[in-house]
Amino acid sequence: MAGMNKEFNPVDYGLDPIELCASNVENKPRIGIGLDSAVIPIKGTELSLLQTCDYFYPIVDDPYLMGRITCANVMSDLFAMGVTKIDSLDLIMQNSTNMTEKEINVVVPLLIKGFQAAASEVQCKASLSTITENPWCTIGGIATAVCRSTEFIMPDKAEEGDVIVLTKALGTQIACSIHHWIDIPEKWSKIKDIVKKEDLDKLLGQAICSMARLNHTAAVLMHKYNAHCCTDVTGFGILGHANNLAKFQKNQNLKFILEKLPVFQNVDKIAKTCNMSKLEKGICPETSGGLLICMSHENARLFCQEIESLENEKAWIVGHVEEGDGNPMALLVSNPEIIQAESTPNLTKFLEHI
Q1: Which H or E element spans position 294?
Q2: Residue 128 has what pLDDT?
Q3: Which of 18, 187, 195, 337 could bond to 260 as cystine, CB 3.0-4.6 Å?
Q4: How many other β-carbons are positioned within 10 Å of the β-carbon of residue 30?
Q5: Which of 54, 61, 68, 67 is nearest to 21 (CA)?
Q6: Which domain holds residue 114?
Q7: Buried b (16+ CB within 10 A) or exposed e, 250-280
Q8: Is 157 a domain residue?
Q9: Residue that is last in its domain, among 88, 122, 151
Q10: pTM (2 decimals)?
């Protein structure tokens, strides 16, 4: 993979080539969207316990990077609530019954190491909670924080006139799944005329860097710039999560309008060629996606400037909040503006702990 100087190679560990990710598993959500985290007041105190549990199938083959991505994804639910300090983080795993003992002995420690490395970025010590067996490898975790009311942001205070900010580009799952097409002649033939193999390497690198990047900085800035509500964009796509956020508002006479879709380079072109219509409809699943935040226009402008200054990563104003008709919802405009998110993937910074 372009940009990776320590790419995981099973052969280096005496293993046969294996695919960790479940690229053949179709993502069809079976339950509705809930809140990002449980918020439980603690009796006799001014504190609340915020907790989230999330797990999924691996999306990349490198176990260390997959561990990092998993941790970023699990913590993101708390970051979406404006939590900046996580008190407890537990890793949950299910080994595939199809993996050999040797494969498990190599892959599992690397998954754990990647998970712990991401947790250490926010001074949180991750512990291993459970390892069980399953026909498919799954990985996830439980993140917990104990907060005062000023230390988290309930996702219910959007106002008419707010704008909507997105902190990461869209297209992570397309980028990861499409990269496997390089080795499948009948599928590669569908896209070889519009992208080169090195384009797909770069695309995968962009997606991995995005998924491995924590939403912690955005959570900190939410307090500074008076965010009114937030959610993270994951399995139900930007429109699905925006719609859920709209329905949770105290003001039930609001409508969230999405006008722009920032995507990784070439993702929209690939999706169109391959009839992957979910991307342009705003319902394409994401893994460890960005935060979707409502705030005033001026604060949003400053928020985007500061996050780029601190992380050298862009955030975008992608929509606005307007008066509704008593039926809160989110809508994606016809022919939304597609923004090409340009970046040079640098996976080295995520591999420095190996």
Answers
A1: strand 291-295
A2: 86
A3: 337
A4: 4
A5: 61
A6: 10-151
A7: eeeebbbbbbbbbbbbbbbbbbeeeebeebb
A8: no
A9: 151
A10: 0.89
Helix 216-224 with 63-79: angle, nearest 10 deg: 20
> Using H for helix, E for strand and C for coil, what is the string for 165-214?
EECCCECHHHHHHHHHHHHCHHHHHHHCCCCCHHHHHHHHHHHHHHHHCC
Q: What is the pLDDT of residues 265-311, one digit of tens each?
A: 999 999 989 888 899 999 999 999 999 999 999 999 999 999 999 99
CB burial of 130-139 (b: ≥16 within 10 Å; e: otherwise) equals eeeeeeebbb
Number of domains in the chain: 2
The residue whose two tokens read 């090409």 is 340
pLDDT of residue 68: 97
Can you list the residues of the chain whose pLDDT is less than 70?
1-6, 17-36, 349, 352-354
If asked whether residues 213 and 273 sit together in one domain, one would say yes
> Tokens 């994951």 — which residue?
234
Strand duo 38-41 + 88-96: pairing: unpaired
Task: List the one residue out of 236, 215, 262 whose CA is nearest residue 77.
Answer: 215
Q: What SS3 state is found at 86?
A: coil
How is 339-353 classified by DSSP, letter by letter?
EEE-----THHHHTT
Tokens matching residue 160: 């008419």
The rounded distance, in Å, linking the Cα atoms of 217 and 215 is 6
The residue whose two tokens read 């989230």 is 52
User: Does residue 133 sit in the same domain as residue 270?
Assistant: no
Query: Quick check: is 39 in a domain?
Result: yes
- The pLDDT value recorded for residue 31 is 35
* CATH code of the domain containing 225: 3.90.650.10
Start-to-end CA distance of the chain, whole Å, equals 17
